[in-house]
Amino acid sequence: xxxxWTARAHSKVNLHLGVGDAREDGFHELATVFxxxxxxxxxxxxxxxxxxxxxxxxxxxxxxxxPDNLAWRAITAVAAALGKPEAATGTLRLTKNIPxxxxxxxxxxxxxxxxxxxxxxxxxxxxxxxxxxxMLYHIAADLGSDVPFTLMGGTALxxxxxxxxxxxxxxxxxxxxxxxxxxxxxxxxxxRKLDELRAAGRGSSPHLDTEAVGKALVNGxxxxxxxxxxxxxxxxxxxxxxxxxKVLDTGEAAGALKGMVSGSGPTCAFLCEDxxxxxxxxAQVCADxxxxxxxxxxxxxxxxxxxx
Length: 308
Description:
Layout: E1 5-22, E2 28-47, E3 52-56, H1 70-81, E4 90-95, H2 106-126, H3 133-143, H4 147-152, E5 155-159, E6 164-167, E7 174-181, H5 187-199, H6 211-219, H7 222-228, E8 230-231, H8 234-240, H9 243-253, E9 258-261, E10 268-272, H10 275-288, E11 292-299, E12 305-307
Parallel strand pairs: 1-8, 3-4
Antiparallel strand pairs: 1-2, 1-12, 2-4, 2-5, 5-6, 7-10, 7-11, 9-10
């Protein structure tokens, strides 16, 4: 009988997101500081003769249950790396606690967890050595820009399209109020809007210097980090979704040290001094902004990890 393996897939927040010009391959050059969060999905995989993807949880809506699901693609990629592509069959279960399409890398985190799961489960099933961890990072980069970081976790500087990682020292522990939105926002459309704003002379120049965030993280002060946080995509996201400006204003008025669009949005992340303040931010924002939901989490957390 095949063993069922389970892993945690941790979400992320971008403490800094600097976006350069579009490259020839269509991606933008990034300088971003990632931090993993305790908010996580549960992912499990059991090898078997049939392929099945089961998605449950508070943010299951809209997550594909077909083979184009990024986590399933991770399983397929590991099977190919093991030299047994036909072994990529079984049951994948996702319990979605991370908001989908919300700039928190939920799909990427699930894929990172699936890489670990498939590597253990399929190598055991086939009876061969697992893929080397370094190779998993190469596979992760092929799957998506955020997958390598969600595999690594902690705090890291991301270059290139975000897949070239350098671990960063982070002495503090940070509390976040996360506000999700019922209406999604397409990542490609936000990048296109940023390019349009810059072409029209209305967009800010790329913020590719992460020194201020790095110093704040070393000092461990949430107040310093709040002053250093920045997202080049925020203006584009607000241009497409002006309602998010009210979300940010409400959260900061409720006591958050800093509110920022998370990644490409529409999720907004509020850095708070403590858990009480974070819960107050969630209460005020959700009361004043229809279609929003909130949660409180902390960081940094680990990357994808197998659960015993």
